[in-house]
Amino acid sequence: MLEVTELTMAYGPIEVVHGLSFTVAAGEIVTILGRNGAGKTTTLNGVTGVLRPKSGDVKFDGKSIVKRRVGDIATRGVAYVPEGRGVFPTLTVWENMACAAYGHGMRRRAATAEINRAVEFFPALTSRLKQRAGTMSGGEQQMLVLARALVTRPQLLLVDEPGLGLSPLLVTQVYEHLVRFNRDDGMSILLVEQYVDLAVNTASRAYVLEKGSVAHQGECAQIRQSRELVSAYIG
Question: Which domains does the chain possess?
Fold first, then answer.
């Protein structure tokens, strides 16, 4: 489904991702791990068109999207939940989700149906639909951005640090939702996370980055059994 080949990302003259290659198959959960500054978020920004790669290619469903705009990539079936949640704080919960629906060309009836469906995954949002998103707690905002992504029925969901700033209980709940998206909708997920144990217990495969390059790749079961690997590149 997603094939990234020799991706190089730079900020001006400074390269931060160097010839990175990885894949995400249909229906698979893959995680990218690494310390702060390893290039994880920059990689996601390169995949989604937020940043233009210096070189390399990104293919989604066999077609290159590396020169496509963010909105075009999104309408092709790629949803991105960035680090820091990114709600529209002055809009209501309903309006936040409606923005995603209308941005994908849905008419009102279809948009309403998709919003209602997304809220079914997050019952806590039911009583918050008329509340301004900026007044909600961090956990509620994280639920909202995930629901907003669901409205578009993506084939591939990219999630950057979903547990950042949340309590352990809320982090666990977020991961339960991600597993449900994958199981019930067959959604592929590319996950960047600081909670290594949760990530490797959720994903099937992992890529471990160090200074913008792949230092290790393999099955998550292998990483769970190698504390030396975690200490060297992640912990």
Answer: 1-77+155-235 (3.40.50.300), 87-153 (no CATH)
